[in-house]
Amino acid sequence: MTVSNPHDLEPNPDASQRSSNAPKWLEPLVLLFPTGFWLVAFLLIPTLLILVQSFVPFGKTEFGLDNYQQVFKYVGGNFIYLVVVWRSLLYAAIATGFCLVIGFPVAYWLAIIAPKEWRNILLLLFVLPLWTSSLLRSYAWITILRPTGVLNSFLNLIGLSGINVLNKAEGVIIGMIYTYLPYMVLVLYTSLEKLDLRLLEAAADLGANSRQAFWQITVPQVSSGIIAGTALVSITSFSDYINPQLLGGPGSRTIASIIELQFLGASSNRGFGSALSMVLILAVTIVIALLIKYGDKRVVTDG
Fold first, then answer.
1. What gap in Å lies between CA 236 and CA 120, rounded to an integer?
2. What are phi and psi of 57, to 5 degrees?
3. Is the model more confident about 280 or about 74?
4. Per-residue pLDDT reduced to its tens digit, 113-150
5. Tell me: the pLDDT tens digits for 84-111?
6. Of 51, 122, 75, the residue nearest 275 (C-alpha)
7. pLDDT digits 0-9 by tens, 28-84
C-alpha cells in the first residue's frame, strides 16, 4: 500500500477541535431536555392558555378586561369575589401561624432534645400521614368533627358539651393545620439541625435568660428556615381546595373552590375562572419572589 501524501495520515486539528466542541454545548441541552420539556408542556403552555382565556369575556370572541373587572364586582353592598380572596388569605395566614407556633417546638425537640439514635424514626413517624391521600385525611377529620363523631363523643364522656366546627371556618382551619404542619416541621428541622449550641452556652454564661437566648441566638440562626416554612405553608394553604370543600360550608368557600365552580359548575364561566386562576398564580408568584429576595438575603447575612 502506497501513500501518495504522508500528510493525509495526520489528524486534522480543526476537525478534531470541531468534534470535541460540538458536544460541549449539546450536553447541557440533552440534560435539560426532559425537565425542560415537562415544564414547557405541562406548566408554561397551560399557564399561557389560561392567561389568554382570561382575557376572553363569556360569550364573546374579542379580548377584553371584563373577566378581571368581574373580580371587583360589587353586589348587595359587598365585593363578592374580593371577599373570597380575603377569606383565602385569612385562612392561609391563620393556618400558617398555628403551624409555625406548633411546629417550631416539635422541630426543636426532634433536632436538639430527642436522642440521636431515635431521631430518624421519630421524624418518619411524624411525617407518616403524608403517605396517605389528603382526601382520606380530610374524610377522617369529618369522622372526628361531626356532631356524633369521635371528638364530641369523648367530650360527652368526660362531662363536657360537644362542639360544632364541621362545615365552618374552624373546621377548615383545623384541616389545614393538620395537613401542612408536617411540611413546616420538616423545613424547620433542617435549619434547627444546624443550630450552633455553643452560642447558646456562651449566651447563658454571659447572663442571658432563655427568652433572650431564643430571640437573639436561636431565631436569627434559623430565620431562613422560618421564612421558607412560612412561605411553603402559606402558598399551599392559600390554594387549598380539599379542606374547604369537605370541612367547610357555603360561607367558607375559598378561591380554589370558586375556580372549580367556574370550570365544572352548572353555570360555568371558563374565562372568569381563568382570571381567578391568574390572580391565584400572581399571589403565589409574589410570595415566591419575596422568598427568593429576602430568604437568600437572610442566608447571605447570616453567612
1. 26
2. -65, 155
3. 280
4. 888 888 888 888 888 888 888 889 999 999 999 988 89
5. 989 999 999 999 999 999 999 999 999 9
6. 51
7. 777 788 888 888 898 899 999 999 988 887 767 778 888 888 888 877 677 888 889
Tell me how far CA of residue 226 lies from CA of 137, 139, 288, 299, in angstroms.
26, 30, 14, 12
Which grid coordinates are listed for 147? 356532631
Residue 127 makes CB contacts below 8 A (sequence gap 6+) with 182, 185, 186
Taking phi over 0 as left and psi of -120 to 50 as alpha, with beta for the rest, 222 belongs to alpha
Supply the pLDDT for residue 109: 92
Q: Are 173 and 87 in contact (CB under 8 A)?
A: no
Which amino acid type is present at position 213? A
Q: How many CA atoms lie within 13 A of 163 on its CB side?
A: 12
Task: Confirm if 227 and 272 have CB atoms less than 8 A apart.
Answer: no
pTM of structure: 0.81
Dihedral sign, Cα of residue 60, residue 64, residue 68, residue 69: negative
Question: Burial level of 252, CB count in 10 A (0-12/13-18/19+)?
Answer: buried
pLDDT for 197-254, tens place per residue? 888 888 888 888 888 888 988 999 998 899 889 999 999 999 899 999 999 988 888 9
Q: For 265-272, which contacts have Cβ atoms below 8 Å and span 24 or more sequence positions?
A: 269/58, 269/67, 270/53, 270/58, 271/53, 271/54, 271/55, 271/56, 271/57, 271/58, 271/66, 271/67, 272/58, 272/67, 272/70
What are the structural domains of the chain?
13-54 (no CATH), 70-302 (1.10.3720.10)
What does the DSSP 8-state code read for residue 65? Answer: S
Residue whose entry in the numeric block shows the C-alpha cell 368526660: 158
Residue with cell 365552618: 168
CA distance 72 to 12: 70
What distance in Å separates the CA atoms of residue 168 and residue 235, rounded to the nearest whole number?
21
